[in-house]
Every structure is written in C-alpha cells, then in structure tokens.
Amino acid sequence: MASTCRLCVLVIVSVLLFGPAAFFSFFLFVPFSRISIPSITKSHGKCIPSACGNIHNIISPFRLANYPNQSKCTNWNYHYLFCHNNLTVLTVDWGNYSVQAINYDNFTIRVVDPGIRNNDFSSIPRYSLSIYNLTYSHLRLTSSTTPITFFKCAKAENSSVMRTYNYVKQGNITASDMEDGCRIEWTTLMSKSFLYGKDRNFSYHDIHNALGYGFELQFGVPRFSYISDIDLLLTFGIELLLSYGAFFPIRSIFGFPFLAALLIYKQRRMHLSMYSNIEDFLQSDNNLSPIRYSYSDIKKMTSRFNEKLGEGGYGTVFKGKLRSGRFVAVKMLEKPKANGQDFISEVATIGRIHHFNMVQLVGYCVEGSKRALIYNFMPNGSLDKYIYCKEGSNPLSCRKMYEISLGVAQGIEYLHRGCDMQILHFDIKPHNILLDENFIPKISDFGLAKLYPVGNTIVSLTAARGTMGYMAPELFYKNIGGVSYKADVYSFGMLLMEMASRRKNLNASIEHSSQIYFPRWVSDQFCMGKEFEMDDATEEEKKIIKKMIITALWCIQLKPSDRPSMNKVIEMLEGEVECLQLPPKLLLYPQQEMPRDNLHGNSNPMCSNTEITCNTLSAT
C-alpha cells in the first residue's frame, strides 16, 4: 500500500514539474509489472494450518492436498504438498521431493531427492533438477545451494593403471577441471551450509550425508524491485518542485535532461537484467555437463576468429581447436533476444540430451555481452549443400541419403519420447542437419526448441516459430488442430521430400508451373497412378525414393491428426515400400475442398485403390 502511495505522489510530482508529457513518459519507462511486493506474509487468510509427519504448521503459500477444512482458503496461489506414508512430499514438474523443513522467516523449503537413503551409501539421486523448469516457477534455488558433479575417469590421477575411477567435485566446473580420459556422469545439488567448516577433501561419507540433508528452494520472494528507484526519483522530484516548481522555464531546463537520463538508465537496466538472467540460469542449472570457458579461451581456440565456417540468424560460426587437439565449432551469438532466452533455450535443451544423432555441446561462454556455444566440429558441414547439388559436385548416393534421413528421424523420435521432458525442435531443416566425417547426421540449433512435460499432447506457444517452408500449418491455422510434436513431423516431411527429390520443395524458376510446389505435384502424380522418375536410378534406388516420398507425403498432411508419429515414420522408412499405404490427396490450406468425385466417398479418401498383399503400414 505504501509503495502504491509513493507511486501516486511521484506521478503528481512529475506532472507538476515537467508538464503532462511526464505522465506518459512515466508509464512508458517505469515497469509497473516488475514492482513486486512479497505475497508471503505471516497471515494465511482463513486457511487452517495443516501437518504431515514431522512437518507442522503448513500454511500459505503451501497447502496440504485433501486436508480437511481447507475449503475456506481465499488465497489461490498455492504450492500443493502431499502426505504419503506420513512423509510430506513436494510435487513439481521435474519430480517428487521429500520435504525436510519449511522456514517462513527466510521463505525457504528444504527438500531431499527420494533416491537418497540415509543408511545406503550406494544410493544415488533419482532426479536431476534443471533451472529450465525453475525459470517459470515460483520456486528458486538459493545462494546456499551448490552443484556437486560426479566424474568417471579411465585411470586415477597420478597413476598409469588403466582402471575406472570415480571422482566428486563440489562447485562449478571449468575447463581445467576436466582431466584426460574423464567424463561427467551426473550432477546434482546440495547445501553449502552442511559442509561449512569441513576440509575441501570431503569423504564420500560427507557427500552422502550432504545429499541426505537436501537443498533449499526459495519461495515468494520477488526477483526484481524498483522501489529504491522510485524513492530516488521521488526525493529528487520533490526537492526540485519545492525549489523551482513554480517557474515554467525550469521545466524546459531540467525536464528534457531528466527524461534523457531516465531513458539511458532504463536501457542499461534492461541489458543488465538480460545478463543477470543468463548468469542466474548458468549458476543454478546443475543438470549441465558442458564446460564453461572464458572469452580469452574462445579467442585462443579460434585463433582470434580466424576461420569462419558460416553465418546464421543468431550469429557467426568459427572453427576452433581445444588444447587436446579436438576440433570444435564456436557459435558466437550476436543478435540475442532481449532477455537471453535463445541462449538459455539452447543450453538448457542440448545440455540435457545425449544421442548418436544429436550434435554435442562441448561448452559455452558468458562474459559480459559476449556469449558463445561450442560444439563438436562436423567436417562435412550441413546437409543442404548435398541436397541441392550443383553441376560438377559429388552428390551423395541414394542409399546414403536414405540412411541420413533414417538417422534424422531417430534423432527427432528421441527428442519426443526419449527424454524426461518432451523436446520440440521447431526448426528441422537441411541447414540444421550437420554431417560428421562418416556422414552420420547430427541435429543442431536448438535456439527455438521448447520443453514440455511428456504427457502434454497439445502445447502452448505465444507466437509461430520456425523457418518458412518447413513450418507446420497449425502454427498459422488454429482451426485444423493444436500445436504438438506433429509440428516437427511436418518439418521432417518437408526435409524428407527434398532429400528424395534432390530439389527445393518450392521452386519458382522451374520450367513447368505445375511443379512449382513439388509436394503437391508429386501427390497428384501418385493420385493419377504415375510415379516419380529419377534419371539413371537403379530399381533398388527407385524403391528407396518412392518409400521416402510416400513417407514424406504422410508427414506433411494438412491436419496434425492425419500425420504419423516419429515412431511410425521410422517403421515406414525401415519397412518395404510395397507395404506402404498411399496417403490422402495433399491439401494446401483448410478452405481447400476435395475433388468432386471424392465428395460422396470416404471423408479421408486415398489416392489409389491398389491392392496391398502384405501387412499394410499406414500412418494410423
């Protein structure tokens, strides 16, 4: 209430001192949405305190589920707790944690991973806590929480015996912490306070006890506050008003410099906030195995950005070399989003996945305004330069192109079903498929990726994302179905069509106007009983091409419900072409009608009535 009064006084002072324009300037440059007041107080409305096990006096902002006499609670913004076998459990998107204590004085709740058992020193955590989940949560990691990383090494330090040893390190990991032959097994969290005063060389007994003690999450405390800014402006405005407020010329003398200073101040605060967001993410995300490098390390490994590999929408990629002699690709982000979400999204996504068909994030750099992502170097570049071959170049064989498409499909299927969170890429296209020295495909560029709970069949997006020509129609036409993993299926279908035909799907320079949009032309060919022909193709290659095109046509169906899952796509690609059912006639937009001869038939008519003599593979 007091803060609201101060805001009102400040508005009045601004109008009297600088004229009506100050009123609009105030609303433009003072972000009310970030003037946050702690909602957690000692009062808890009409809610009756509840208890479970050794956790007593459970009050706002927590509420014990199914506890009697809770219907009179007036505060809706609760974190629900559950009582299971006399243990209090905090359920969040990333797991169920045992509650050890709640402190309403410093707004913290201490939780323990249920995988840790006090008397079992071989027990390990069940979950990996990620800041990506906490980014949209009212629960945040506290400054007393520290990461703890488990290494597995091929040999012990200062020993030549080739055996496997495990090491544990408390705190953040840098490049110098990684010895030759070592890899990060997993990372979790613990409380610094539990190990306070102990020697740096902790025993495994100490580590296990620290994990059993748990770590603290903070609730209900605002991250940003401009109250101090408002107090400063209020004091300045009142003093200026008392001294000069009656004189109109003073408005001109002091008004414009004051407004300019306010503009500069707010601009700087916005940039500082962006860097703060990224730093908070990196300091708190303990599910990451990539190494953090300094900007000087980046300059050394790239020989001061000597060799440029390419340039994209978010920055430039340079070739680099680590101290071990390993080649890497360094992506310097030059045009980040205002709050650094592109960087956070890419690190949070690719830092948690490990798959044969995914590009590996080796490390990253955040230093002031400098941000970089370091990946494994792919010597054969991106897929686009092999699909659209120029004359005189050495194209990939049909068999190799098929193998690449199958690898990409397996990678996307892993993103959709192989992780603890459902990962939607939203930017599958040839440029984002990299090829290693053996032409094994690696999916890259997770700047547009989004993470969702595995059970979410429909996801929410604030705006369409992706690359034109590969974006699913439901991103634009809301009436054909919700956005889901089927958006990636559509993008893969467009990619697969280009791989099979060795040409762009949309080509305005083509001689025959009917072939400008290639997928529609191919669909019409199949519906007329004709097949797509490629010069000098063997019988085996013709079967491969036909299989890829039929699968692609299924993937790019207008309605998401008509498209197969990536698991079914893999089955179709691995199966026999004779067993594939032909897809419906391809529609380009929701208002398009089916041919008149199909109006009285099946609502989802097929192009061909060809008899299938084997177990038919369809998309459903």
Automatic annotation (TrEMBL):
Instruction: State the source organism's domain of life.
Output: Eukaryota
Query: Where in the cell is the protein located?
Result: Membrane
May I ask which residue range the UniProt record assigns to the signal sequence? Answer: none
TM spans (from-to): 7-30, 241-265
The principal localisation class reads membrane
Protein kinase domain residues are 303-577
Q: Which GO terms describe its cellular component?
A: membrane
- UniProt keyword annotations, A-Z: ATP-binding, Glycoprotein, Kinase, Membrane, Nucleotide-binding, Serine/threonine-protein kinase, Signal, Transferase, Transmembrane, Transmembrane helix
Topology term for the membrane:
Single-pass type I membrane protein
Q: Which residues bind ATP?
A: 331
Give the species this sequence originates from: Prunus persica
Name of the protein in question: Protein kinase domain-containing protein
Give the GO molecular function terms. ATP binding; polysaccharide binding; protein serine/threonine kinase activity
